Amino acid sequence: MQVLKTVNDPEIGASIVNLGMVRAVEVRGNTVGIQIALTAPNCPARTTIRDDVMKAVSKIEGVAGVDVQLSSMTDQERGKLPQAMANRPPVERTNSQQPSNSKFMGIDKLPKRKFGQIIAVTSGKGGVGKSLVTGLLAVELRRHGFSVGILDADLTGASIAKIFGVKDRPIWTSATPAPPTSGTGIKLASMGFLMERDDTALIWRGPLINSAIRQFYSDFEWGNVDFLLVDLPPGTSDAPLSVFQSLPLDAALIISSPQELAVMIVGKAINLAKTMQIPILGLVENMSFATCPDCGKRIDLFGRSKAKKLPKPPA
Ligand SMILES: [Zn+2]
């Protein structure tokens, strides 16, 4: 129990022991069986909680195996949650105007807050310049006088901080910190700010990404933002999927490049947006061609465009 006290419910930010989530601990020889009652049946943090419990208990000397069983609290148990915590629901519910895809995989959609338009920038795979396009789009919107924010959800690269030349790691002391801003006032939330070294490639698990994104989205004092651009992790794995599910996105922009030979891969990203019922603004084929500075000839650096072979989003 002492060790379990160090494990927090990431959604509530309190120890699972204090929350009364530990139903039973059973020691059989060198194996420990633990029953955890989640505060909600589809708690988005369920995998994180299970993994954290496994990790914490495995560290105890002499423990060879850990078996974690998850269930959910009864209404009565939920009623016993300390009052202060019960007042803060684990997941903010969507308002009724938002189209809800939340039944899918049990991830709840966050509320819209003060964002005008929330646009996801996505790609079928990495290396197509998605973050750069996100940055350029933000700069252009800013030039038109809009208030712009970028939520860097691509934790594998986390290059947004670098693109905008924001080098200092911000010191966050408030519970609702303001996001750092670029030279022209673009508000930036990037995992890159939290990383020790910018050459460290992070492989984050889906649930952890989802938790980090939720915190950036919910806990930051964004103020008024006309356009929030979300730089999604590449691909169609559970990482981008969880962002699609948890943020109230208004539209998606798909980035590709001619050398991304497998049209199928981009098609998958398009289909993901379609499945999540998010309107697709368009497809940007990055690095499509270069114009020769001497004679003005167009050079297709990576071969002819393949954009027209892609499935078209519904009109
Ligand atoms: Zn030339």
Structure, explained:
The protein is elongated. Mean pLDDT is 78; it is low at 86-106. The strands form 4 sheets. The chain has a 6-stranded parallel beta sheet with strand order 8-7-9-6-10-11, sandwiched between helices. The protein has a 3-stranded mixed beta sheet with strand order 3-4-5, covered by helices on one side. Helix 6 runs parallel beside helix 7. It has helices at 46-58, 75-79, 83-86, 130-143, 160-163, 206-219, 238-246, 263-275; strands at 8-9, 14-15, 22-28, 31-38, 65-72, 115-123, 148-152, 187-190, 225-231, 251-256, 280-285, 290-291, 298-299. It contains 8 helices and 13 strands. It is α/β, with parallel strands linked by helices. The chain binds zinc ion.
Average per-residue pLDDT, rounded, comes to 78
Which oligomerization state do the chains in this entry correspond to?
Answer: single chain
Give the amount of beta strand, in percent. 15-25%
**Model regions low in confidence, pLDDT < 50 over at least 5 residues:** 86-106
What ligands does this structure carry?
zinc ion
Largest sheet: 6 strands, parallel
Q: Briefly note the structural class of the backbone.
A: alpha/beta
Number of DSSP E strands: 13
The largest sheet has its strands arranged as 8-7-9-6-10-11
Estimate the global geometry from the Cα principal axes.
elongated
**Helix-strand pattern:** EEEEHEHHEHEHEHEHEHEEE
End-to-end distance: 57 Å
Number of DSSP helical runs: 8
Our Rg estimate from Cα atoms comes to 22 Å
The helicity comes to 10-25%
